[in-house]
Every structure is written in C-alpha cells, then in structure tokens.
Amino acid sequence: MSTTALLRIEDLTVVAGAAAGDPVTVVDAVNLEVGEHEVLCLVGESGSGKSVTMLAAMGLLADGLTVTHGCVRYRGTDLLTLPPGRLRALRGKDIAMIFQDPMTALNPVRRVGRQIQRAVRRHARVTRAAAWARAIALLDQVGVPQADRRARAYPHQWSGGMRQRAMIAMAIANTPAVLVADEPTTALDVTVQAQVMEVLAAARAATGAAMVMITHDLGLVAQVADRVAIMYSGRVVEQGDVLEIFERPRHPYTRALLASLLTLDGADGPATAIPGAPPTPRHRPPGCAFAPRCTHPARSAVCSATVPELVGAGHGHQVACWFPDPPASGQPPAAHP
Amino acid sequence: MSGATVSRAPVSGATGPVLEVEDLHVRFPVRDRRGRRTSLRAVAGVSFSVARGQTLGLVGESGCGKSTLVRTLFGLNPVQAGSIRVLGHDLATMTPRQRRPVQNRMQLVFQDPYSSLNPRLTTAELIGEPLRIAGRHSAARVAELVTAVGMDSSALDRRPGEFSGGQRQRIGIARALALEPDLLVLDEPVSALDVSVQAQVINLLQELQQRLGLSYLFVAHDLSVVRQISHQVAVMHLGRLVEVGTREQIFRDPQHPYTRALLSAVPVPDPRRRDRPRVALVGELPDPTEVPDGCTFRSRCPVARPDCAGAEPSLLAPSAGRSQVACFHPEPSQHQPALGEP
Lengths: 337, 342
Fold this sequence. Notes:
The complex is a heterodimer of chains A (337) and B (342). Chain A has two domains: 7-225, P-loop containing nucleotide triphosphate hydrolases (Rossmann fold, 3-Layer(aba) Sandwich); 231-265 and 272-319, no CATH class. Chain A is built from eleven helices and twelve strands. Chain A has helices spanning 50-57, 84-90, 102-105, 112-123, 128-141, 147-150, 160-171, 190-207, 218-224, 242-247, 252-260; strands at 7-16, 24-34, 39-43, 65-74, 77-78, 95-98, 178-182, 210-215, 227-232, 235-241, 311-312, 318-319. In chain A, the strands form two sheets. Chain A has an eight-stranded mixed sheet with strand order 6-7-8-3-9-10-12-11, with helices on both faces. Chain A has a four-stranded antiparallel sheet with strand order 2-1-4-5. In chain A, a hairpin with a 2-residue loop joins strand 9 (227-232) and strand 10 (235-241). The longest helix of chain A is centred in the middle third of the chain and has 18 residues, at 190-207. Chain B has helices spanning 66-73, 96-103, 123-133, 139-148, 165-177, 195-212, 223-229, 247-252, 257-265, and strands at residues 19-31, 37-50, 55-59, 81-86, 89-90, 106-109, 183-187, 215-220, 232-237, 240-246, 324-325. In chain B, the strands form two sheets. Chain B has a seven-stranded mixed sheet, with helices on both faces. In chain B, strands 2-1-4-5 form a four-stranded antiparallel sheet. In chain B, helix 3 crosses helix 4 and helix 3 packs parallel to helix 5. The A-B interface holds A 45-46, 159-162, 189-195, 197, 216-223, 225, 242-243, 246, 256-258, 260-266, 270-275, 277-278 and B 61-62, 164-167, 194-200, 202-203, 206, 221-225, 227-228, 251, 261-263, 265-274, 278, 280-281, 284, 338-340, 342.
C-alpha cells in the first residue's frame, strides 16, 4: 500500500468493559488506510465493529470502550495521543462525520441554520452574519429548496432526507479532507437514498474530500467504493479494490455475503443463505470467527484453532483465511494436505 | 424440519381468495396549520385480494399508508368505507364473538423481533400463548411448531435475550402459526435482520408456504426481498395503489413512473454498472394532510403533463398481459434488458 495515506489506522484494538474487569475485544488489530480523494467502504453486519473502529479513530468512543493498542495517523499525526484541544480543532475541520440518524445527531431545540452556522464559526474566524450566509449557501449546495427560509426551521420540521442533507452541509462546512459517513442512508427510503447519495457525491467532488463509508449495503458499496474492507466479528477479513472484491472475492465470508444478496435481476429459486448468525464479541469462537458458519470444502482443524492473519494476495488484495479461494476463477479450491 | 407436520383444521369458505379488501378508506382526524379540524387521508380506495397459497408483496415508501393498512386489517384503525373479507366473511358485519374465529385465520408477524417478544417469557410460553388464549394448548403442539420453524427443541426453555435476531423472528413466525392461520401478514419481517440472515428467513417462509398452503401479505420497502418472495406485487403511493401486477409484470415491464423510479433507485451490486440510467425523482412525498388535486404523484413525476392535475387516475383493468396501472401516461411496453434477462 502507498505511504501517502491520508488517514491510516494501524493495529487498532478496542476493548469493552475493561474498567469493570470483564474485558471483551470489540475491534481486534484492525489496519485500514484511506488515500487522498479515495472512497473506502467499511462493510460488515451488526456487531462486526465497523462503527466502533471509526468512532475510536475519531476519539468519539462511548464510555466503557477503550483503545488498548494501535494508532490512528492523519497526515502522519497520531490522533490517539493528541491533546484533546488539538483533536477538537481537527475534528469537524479536517475530518468530519456524517451520522446515520440525523434526528439524534441534530440538536432538536436549535434551528437547523443556527447549527450549521455554529459549525462554521467553530473552525473559522468569521462574523455571525458571514457564517449564517455560509450556512444558507451550504444548504443550497446540498439541494435544500428555499434554504434561507428552511434554515430558520427546527429539525423536527424537516423530513428525514432533508435532515440528512443538513448533516452533509454541516460536514462539508469546513472543506474537510476526510468524511466519515456511518450508514448515511440506512434510515431513508430508496428514492431519497438515491438523492442523498448524489448530494454526497457532489459534495465530495466540490471539496475533494476522501470518504470512509460504513455500510452493510453491498449495492451502495458497488456504486461508490474505490476500495472495500470487509469486517467480521471485530476483524478485517478481506480488503481490496472494489472490482477485486466483487469479482474475485477470496474469503468464504465475502463470497457467501455476495451470494446471499437478493437483487432485482437474480435467478429464480431459493436464496443462498449463510447458516447461523454472526457471533457476539463475548461468544466469539477461537480461531477464525467465521469457521462455524463456513462451508468451504477445505475447512479444517486449523480454522477453529488459530486466527488467520490478514496477508497480501496480490493486486492490492488482502485476505485473512487459511484456505483463500484462488484468484483465478474456474479453478477448484486447492485441496488441503 | 423433516417429518414435522403442522396439522390444519378444515376451514369454511376454503375456495376463493383468503383476503379481499375492497375500496378501503381510512382517514384520521388532525388539525391543519391554522388549527382547524381536517382529516388526513391515510388509505384512499385500496382494493386487492390474496389468493390461497400465494404471496402478495405490498411495496411503498414510508408514509405511503402501508402500515396503516396492516393495522386496519387487524381492527386497530376505524374503517371509513370499504370492506375487508377474510375467507369470504365481511369483518364489519360480524359481532366480536363471530369475528374472533375468522380473525384468527389471519395472523401478524412484526418487523422488530426485539420489541415484539416479551423478554420475560420462554420460547415455549411465547409460542404457547396464543394456544392458551384459544383454549387448545398442548406441549406437543408447541414442540411441533418450534421444529417447524427450524429451531431445536432445546430452545423451548430459553428466553428471547439469548437468541439472535433471526432466531427471534423464527419464534415470531412460530407464534403466528400456532392457531393454524390461512394468511400471515408480514410487516417488514426481515428488514431488522442482518443481510446474511435475511435469506434464511425468506427461505423458511417460502418452505412453510409450500408445506402448509399459506397465503402471505408481505409488506416491505426492499424491492429485492419482495421480488424474491412475491407472486403478485402491489405498489402503494400516498394511500393509493398505483400499480398491481404479477411479479414478472412489475419487475420486468413496469408501467407506472413511480414503480420505474423505485426500481431504478435500488443500487445495483455490480461496480461495472455505475452509470446505468436512472429515473430521477425530485422532492419527497407530499404532505398527506394537503393532498394535491389530480394525480398525487405528479409533483415528483418525471413525465407529468398538464392533464395529470385534472383528476386522480384509478387502477385500470389489465390489458395485453400487463399490470393494472393508475396513470394517465403509462410507460409503453418494453422489455427492459437491464431488469430482465442477464
């Protein structure tokens, strides 16, 4: 991987309940990086640790969660050892976050325009009037009709799609270098989701920001990602370029996930289900966490004994599996001695 | 699951549709901006039927009235006009005492398997509860039901908190099946589940349908899921059905611009198909307290013309093997290769 990563997460480990004397590893030695202007999609099911990874990177972990290992470098600076004041100056300016649920992320008792105005003034020395004008320009930019009038309304008077536009306006207010979007369209209807994704793409084009998008929706991933990291039970199990992941997936979990997708033009017949359910961090099995659900023909005792490391598999592709499927299609998986 | 048979009692009115809804209207009293009394049009003239052993998928965005419709089927909202017939019996003309056995033929599976199961009850108690209320509880029947939904009998003594979302939804399905219904109304049954688990539940529902001859009214916003399970599909927009047809008709040859927009908004999981053409919609659902004149979709419609403001289009009878559509300017027939064959 390149040495010019904008944001690089190295060996990040997050533990829950350490203070209570009952530690459970929620994020386990995760390595990720995002280059300038790049879109990285972080994919996983609920409890895979994808949101916790990014919240840890931004110093926004909830009480009870602690980083026990690793570092997060933004342009070379380790964010985890940065004094709180300097981290606050960086967060919202250089790295901005778009949350899943704009209703809980926006302050319900402040007018929407006022909240964006405040985000502007937090990081730039401008007058209130200039910041208000900037807030309206930003709302206009993300496609809020009659922005000057709507800016005076409260969040509950806005629809879900419009609120998410306001979140995007706030996030791009200080032209950040990295946007972290946590399931930005999950709460929205499909036609509104399409509109918001277009707004997000336009906002990125205007600011040149890189983006880490956390999602479980592989359809969205295929539409926006440059690179993809697949997480399962606290670990990255596979990462690579979007075409590599969709066309030459090498981890059995990625393959199963892609096979289980229901589409608008798929074949008829029963859906391909993955047996079982993802383990909770407390009940994570030893070895490869996916082993109990894995149906790979070469699966063996080593899978449930030792955790496979994430190793390079060529073409910038990395996989954490004892028996990764061969990169060339058409070949049967290699038989294990 | 093999060998487990869920027995079914004979039913009166076993021929004809299991559920028939005709010209159903539901309105809620609200106050407008100036505080005057007015009413919100939640369901406006909806008609459909669900045939025995078939699945009708009902799709629409939030606020379209699909949840109101579901609640109305179970008597939770007052009906303004229209009729609901279950196995040929009109629910409105029956006394509560007469209604009970008919209403039991139709059971609801909820969206959220976390909040819809009492956390203090064991699986056996949860599944047995409807049987107790109906006065026909037996441990054998509970065991039969838990096996029928693909769970182990060791699950019977455990409580919902010990199960994953998929397992909980299986318990919800077993509970709904306890009184041997003919129809399950499934309100977003997989949208709270992880993608890897959704397919399991869909497969279970399809297998149960084949084995027990069940009918489903499957309410969802996820078009890919609806396509997987439905025989017939109804598309709802602002309280009205705008298109009704077979699965093939709706997904391969949609006529209503709203259906076409919904289909084209679904992201395709293929990174090589990023630039496919889309039917872009502007704006969002209009305020249901101030429904515009004429076609209620015209403010967002990419092909709206002046005459769309005149009257509200109603569902036309199907012609030439195409769906029923409520539109003055339906899309001419064309088999879209993008949505049809690979």
